[in-house]
Amino acid sequence: MKLVSLYGPDRRLAIEREEPLDVNPNCELCDLYNSARNVCLNADGEPGGALLIGEAPGKNEDISKRPFVGRVGNYLRGLVAKSWDGPVAFDNGVRCYPGREPPSVASIKACRGYLAQTIEEVQPKRVIALGGKAAHSLLGRKTKIMSVRRGYAWLWNDGAQPVPVFLVPHPSAALRNRFVRQEFEADLEWALTCDEPALPPWDEEVCVVETEADAMLANAELRAAKWISFDYETAGRQFDGEFTALVVGLCAYGSNRPWVWDHVSLENPATLAVLQRLLADPTVAKVGQYVKYDMLSTRCALGTVVNNIHGDTRLWRKLMDPEADAKLYVMQELVGMGGSKDEVTAALAKGMRAVNKALKDGPAHEGPTLLDGMPPAIDAAIRLGGDPKRYQYSFLPWATLVRYVALDAVSTARLSEKFEAELAVEEPGLPRIWNKIVRPCISALERVENWGIAMDADAIRHVQTHFGAKVEESRQRLAAYGNFNPNSPKQLGEFLYTKLGLPVSKLTKTGNASTDKEALEAIRGSHPVVDDVLAWRKYGKLKGTYADGLYDAIRGDGRIHGDVKPDGARSGRLSMSDPNLQNIPTDKEADGKMIRDCFIAPPDHLLLSCDF
C-alpha cells in the first residue's frame, strides 16, 4: 500500500506564519490610523496563562489605550476572574478603533503581526478567540462563530507543546439579551476550565489501497468497528455518463487512520469488489456527511446499494441546532480539524487556471488531455462544452485529493462520535425522532432521487423555442416605446413615471417608485407598455427558470434527479433543488400546462400526484 501524510507539511495557523511586529504608534499598515484617537494599542495583562483576544478596540478602549475596559470589557473581566485564577492577558486582533463598522479583512491581515508578537511575549497556556473577527485574526479563515461555538483550533507552537485556541462568541451581545448571556457565560466558563481536547491526528498517515491484500486488511479493520465513516470525491454529475468516483475515504469508529481507494484501486476488479461488499453489507453500520450523496455516488459509480446507515453529521447537527451551518468544513472546527480545505482551495484555483488556459490554447495545447492524468471521459466532456467546475476535483494533484478525502472521513468520524453522544443530552426525545423519522428518511429519499422523473427532451426543447419567441416578441414591442432598458429598475421607473407620467402605486425602501410585479399589476391597463413589461418578465422567467433550467437538469439517463433535502426548510418540511420541482407552474393556464406536459411516465405507467 501507499502511505501519504494526512496533513500537509505546514500545520501552523495564520498567526504563526506572521513575522512578529513591535507595537508602533505610527503604524500606517491599514487606513484605520486616519480616524483612531490612539494608533496600535498594546495588549494588557500578565504572561503565562489565559490570553483572550477580542475583535477590535471600542470607543472606551480607544480613549484609555487598554483593551476591554468599557462596559463589555468590565463584564468580561469579571467573568474571567470567577473561572480563572491564573495569569490572564487581553488583546485585540485589530489594534485601532474601527468606528461603527466591523474590522475589515485588510485591517485583520495588517494587524496580525502585532498579535503574533503578543502571543510570543505572553506564551499563553490557552487562547480564547472572542467573536468571528478574532477567530479570523488567529486562524486566517472566516468562521461562523455561532455555528462553531465551543469549537477549537491549535497553535502548533513549532512542534513544542501545542496551545489550544477556543472559539467563543463576542460578549457584546450578551449584555443585550439574557438568553444570549446565559449561553455566553457557559461558553466562556467552558473555555477557561475545560480539559485540553484531543489533538488532531497530525502525524497520522493515509493508507491508500493498491492490492487485494491491502483491501482485505482495510476490510478487516473497518468491519471490526462499531461503525465506519465514508466519503467520496467525484467529478461530473451523478447519472451522467462521465460521472466518476475519483477517491473513496473510510475511517473506523475511534480511529484516526483513514483508508482510501483511489482511481487505480477503484478500477481494479479485485480491490473494488472488497469495497463494494463492505458498503453493501447490512451488518456494517455507516455514517457520513450528507450521506445521501455518497449513497447515490456508490450506486452511480460502483453499481452498489449502501445498506445500514447509522448516522449523518449534517442531519444530526440540524436536528440539535436548526440554525447552525452544517457544512463539513464549518463543523470541522468543532473537533479541532478546521482548515482542512485550505490546501484544496489553492490547488483547485491553480487547476482551474490550467484547464482554462488549455481550452484557450486549443490545438496548440500540448498533451492528449487538458491536464496530465485527467480521465478521458472528463476531458471529452469539458472539450464538448461541459462546465469545468463540475469536474474540478479531477484537476487536483493525487496526494492533495487523497489527503482531502481522508481528512473528510476522519473529521466525519470524529463529529459522529461527538454528535451521537450529544443527541440524547440535548433533548431526551431526539434519539427517537432520529431513529423513527430522520434515519429511515435518508434511505427513502435516496431511492426517490435514484429513480428520478422522466422528461420528454423533445417537448422541453419545443417549450424553449416557444417561450424564446414570446420573449423576443415582447422585447420588440418594448423597443418600439423608446430607448430604455427594461432590466434596469431605474431606467424603467424613469420611463414609466417621469416620461409617461403613470401613477406610482408603491415605493421601495429607499423611497423610489417601485417597478416590481405588485406595483405594475396595480397600474395594469393605464398604458399598454405595462402589459408588455409584465409579459416580457413572465416569458423570460418561464424560459430561463423552467424551460432552460429543466432541460439542463436532464441527466444522461433521460431523467431529472433533483436533490431532495430533509433539512432544506426552516419549517422541517422537505425541499428540493437542482432543480426545484416544487414550484413548477400549475396546469390551470396554457403556459403551465406546456411545462407540466414535459414530465412523462415510462411505458405502461402513470404519473400519480399525491398530497397529505
TrEMBL record:
GO biological process, one term: double-strand break repair
InterPro entries per UniProt: 3'-5'_exonuclease_dom, DNA-dir_DNA_pol_A_palm_dom, DNA/RNA_pol_sf, DNA_polymerase_A, RNaseH-like_sf, RNaseH_sf, Uracil-DNA_glycosylase-like, Uracil-DNA_glycosylase-like_sf
Molecular functions (GO terms): 3'-5' exonuclease activity; DNA binding; DNA-directed DNA polymerase activity
Keyword Membrane part of the UniProt annotation: no
Keyword vocabulary terms for this entry: DNA replication
Residue span(s) of domain Uracil-DNA glycosylase-like: 42-189
Name recorded for this polypeptide: Uracil-DNA glycosylase-like domain-containing protein
Species annotation: marine sediment metagenome
